[in-house]
Structure formats: structure tokens, C-alpha cells
Amino acid sequence: MGIVLLILLSPLWLALPFVGLTFALAAWVFPGTSGGSRARPAAQALGLFACVLMEWLATAWVMVAFPWRGFRYAIPAAGAGRRTALVVIPGLCENALTLSILARRLSRRTGAPVLVITPRRYFDSLENLAAACRQQIEAFLRETGCTRADLVGHSMGGILARLLSQPAQLGERVRSIVTVASPHLGSALSAVGIGRNLRQMRRGSAFLESLNAQPPPESVRIAGICSIHDNLVLPWNCALSPHGENLLLRFRAHLTLILSAEVADRVAERLAAPRRTLAPPKL
Prior knowledge:
The chain is an alpha/beta fold. It is built from eight helices and seven strands. The termini are far apart. It has helices spanning 2-29, 41-65, 100-110, 126-144, 156-164, 196-200, 206-213, 261-272, and strands spanning 73-75, 84-89, 114-116, 148-154, 174-180, 221-227, 245-249. Helix 3 (100-110) crosses helix 8 (261-272) and helix 4 crosses helix 5 (156-164).
């Protein structure tokens, strides 16, 4: 019984040093924060404690879900006649199970058919990962009869969403993009990672320089959500979207954001915001 319990709790113990190290690096790389008036010392300490605790649990959840890369998750529309689907794109080492909680919340808030991308592999070039996403999105649009898709990407998923909005990819079939904790300007941690996708997300990489230099298509609205207490995008201001509006949160770390009901609310608000009417794209 003790061995079984130890195995079940192993993600918690494995997550503990990882979270401790990343928060220490975050404080070292970018010790200062901005964002308006500061909380009282007691509230600040309590908020930081809750932030670290929730990130510990969120990291353990990602570790539990990691082996289930082939897990598929899609939610049909709450009502008929929907013309826009919602696609949630996982970040590095995330999958459909990892983002199922966020997807379920977005489904309830938007009523749209929701697809969570199933990654074919965790480590590959961002171009290849985007191509695999595109195939799944196009199949989901045909299945649901939708003509457009709103893309919500966490971490690396936000970079893939921006790549997919380019004319050579999905182009006009993308209506809106909301990125959550995405390393638009790279991350210092990517320098110690493996895989071509991590190399492409290094600060100052040729890939990010090229992507950021391209203005988004006029038909696509982009919004970014990030946290000043992000422990994986270092420094945190590298998660500020170079295009569109940005919303800054506090006391939410990198992986905690995908489990946050507040984040689901903010994403849904940005997807529902008034926008000019666009003609249906040519499929």
C-alpha cells in the first residue's frame, strides 16, 4: 500500500524541485515587477505563497497528463448554427488532457464547438507542429460545418496560433487569437532545453524575429494574456504580445493559468468583444 501511495504521489515530489528552481530563476532574471499599485506586504506574501502552491499542483497535473499524448478531446456545440469553432492549442509537453479543464470552461462560456489539439509529438520544429495543427483544425471545421475558428493557445500554443493565422496557413479562416503566457519574445529557459521548437523559442531567435516582424492579417484580432509572476517565460514581459492588446494578471504562474477560472473568463470576454463584420472566407 505504501509503494502504491508513493507512486501516486510521485508527480507532487517531482514537481517540487522543478517549481522551486523556476521561481528562483524568475526572481534572479527579473526581480522587479510592474503593473500599478503594489499590494500590502502581508497580501503580497500571501499571494506569492498561493501562487507557488498552485503552480506546484498545476505542474504535478501536467506530469500526470504527460503520457496521454494521444488523448482526444472535442466538445460539440451547445446549439446549432454556429459558424465559428474554438480551438485550444497546447504548449510544450501539454496535450488535450492537460487543457481539458480550460476547454470545458470555454465551452460553457462561449457555446461554441471546442477542439483541443492532439499533439503528434512534443518535440519538433514549430512549422511541423503548426502543419499538424492545421490538419486537425481543417478536419474539425468540416465536421462541424463552421467556416472560421478562434484560436486559444497556451505557451508555445500561442506561437503556433499566430503562425497558423498567416495567409499560407489558415489565413482568413482564423477569426481571433488569444495567447496565454506565450513566449512571443522568447524565454531564457529555452536556452537549456532540447528540441528544435525550444531552440526556435530562444530570445532573439531568427524564427521569432521573423514572426514578430510580420503584421497579423487584418481579418484577425489578437489579444495576449500573461502574468507578472510567470515562472517559465523569463523574463515575464517576453509574454507580452507584440500585436493587439495585452492583459496582465498577478499571482498566477505559468501552468496555473490553464487551470484558472479567471483566465477562462478573460479569454471568453475577448472572443465575445464586438468586432467589425467580415465576409465568410473562401474555403
